[in-house]
Amino acid sequence: MIDPAENQTSGKNVLIENGKVAAWLGSNEKAPEDAEIFDATGLIVAPGFIDLHVHLREPGQEYKETIATGAAAAVAGGFTSVCCMPNTNPINDNAAITRFIIEQANKAGFANVFPIGAITKASDGTELAEMGEMKAAGIVAVSDDGRPVPNAGMMRRALEYASNFDLTVVDHCEDKSLSAGGAMHEGMMSLLLGLKGMPALAEDVDATRDCQLAEMTGAKIHIAHISTKGAIEAVRNAKARALDITCEVAPHHFTLTDEAVEGYDTNTKMSPPLRSKEHLEAIFRAIEDGTIDAIATDHAPHHSDEKNLEFDRAPFGITGLETAVGLAFEKLVHTGSINLTRMVEMFSANPARIFGLKNRGTLKVGSVADITILDPDLKWKFNVADSKSKSKNSPFDGWKFRGAAVATIVGGKVVYRRKY
Ligand SMILES: [Zn+2]
Ligand SMILES: [Zn+2]
Q1: How far is the CA of 80 from the centre of ligand 1 (A)?
Q2: Average pLDDT over residues 103-130
Q3: Closest to 79 in 3D by CA, of 48, 36, 107
Q4: Catalytic residue among 144, 171, 175, 298
Q5: What average pLDDT is seen over the chain?
Q6: How far, in Å, is the centroid of ligand 1 from the Cα of 85?
Q7: 220 CA to middle of ligand 1, Å?
Q8: pLDDT for 330-339, tens place per residue?
Q9: pTM tops 0.85, yes or no
């Protein structure tokens, strides 16, 4: 068992009662007679993994993904909880939509779904959304992901307002005046491929601006899908000044560079884009030194008809729920970049802390029995055709991995078991 939140790595067993962790049992302690036993010999029992950043497309674009298909993909990938971005249709900028998402998630079962509300009404950057009402309905954070608040004055008001409700602001850092019309990272590759670039600077300036606004307002900012050296530097400096700033990285950003765009596969098109090698190296340093707090997928399902367009016309985004754990094992743990405890922390304890999800991200007695069971050595291949997601837009089809989530337990119920 590994529980980074409790500083625990041990051979203890976890006793679950009524959906909660009831006790930790040593190897000599017996489970109650009627207890159902899950034999995790040779496996790692970890707190349930929490994905801070997914797009579930419901309401409005159910042909791409529904809350039920997204939640099924989540548990198949080892996630017990997902936090879904508000850019649905209509946008989750009011309590009625928040309640609808929670109802659909309860009907679907599988994973816990925590909605993220919009910062501004319709995420258009002009008028603040009713954060208090959405919080009462169940949102866990606010974000205008994909349509970042363009104006510093509005962002300042948003941060002050969100602070009143103790809500973390999730920040997609992109100054669109620098990146508009771009399809990939701006650099040598965009030049070679003849595609319009999105400069790293677009992310850097927005991240730097918002770190300064966090300092001014004292608000909590979580930077989404960090991908540039400059943005990482801004976060590192902010943390050194003890500001309330955290950040996440998406698995594709520690796995691929812009060289993957050669061949114009639209499954290498996402926002922020795959960056060049120097940024990838900065990401690794930031994962290793703790500047990056969490791994989040930015799971963004799109229909194949949309992804089959020319590169510059195809939508941004890839699916990620079922490949995140495999990529983290392959690229971070088995390479020696970080150890397994740190990986578990980036998927569980830290995400729970960032959004203030009480009694989750830990196996301490009394917490919700959300558990991810890992086999660090399982060899497997990802076939996108078998994905539980409704969309198949993954650049990792056919990739081979060592290390996987083999069972997912939500509220004490086994909701997924990998077939060997
Ligand atoms: Zn985003
Ligand atoms: Zn996103």
Answers
A1: 22
A2: 97
A3: 48
A4: 298
A5: 97
A6: 9
A7: 18
A8: 999 999 999 9
A9: yes
